[in-house]
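From: lab user (bench 3)
To: helpdesk
Subject: output format question, protein + iron/sulfur cluster

Hello, I'm new to running complex predictions and I'm not sure whether the block I got back is the full result or only part of it. Here's what I submitted:
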Amino acid sequence: MSDCCTGGICSEKTYLTFRRRDGTPWVPMYVQEVDPAKCIGCGKCVAVCLGGCYEMVEIKGDKKARVVNPGNCMGDCHCHKVCPVEGGAMTCRPVELG
Ligand code: SF4
Ligand code: SF4
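Helpdesk reply: Thanks, we reran it on our side. This is the complete output you should expect:
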């Protein structure tokens, strides 16, 4: 299980899983979308995302993050870890197998 974004994990299902160097399991969580009602427009997700998955847009005069390249997501959860909104303004999900 990953260090964050664990809300989507169900113990009865099987997910795409990798292992860290120390052998512990890690489930990548891939970004889906940003909830503009939760996003406070800090831009931290844009700054940390190595995949260029986000961009900042203006919605009704407010800055908001938006997912523009979800296919580039590596599932590392860096964006979720830096998002100051409790629980994260973005939704990230694991890949379910079977
Ligand atoms: S999980 Fe990583 S690659 Fe995917 S959107 Fe977040 S920071 Fe970018
Ligand atoms: S880190 Fe969170 S609050 Fe900040 S811009 Fe990204 S989604 Fe919005």
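A quick orientation on your result: Strands lie at 18-19, 25-26, 30-34, 54-59, 62-67, 90-93. Let us know if anything else is unclear.
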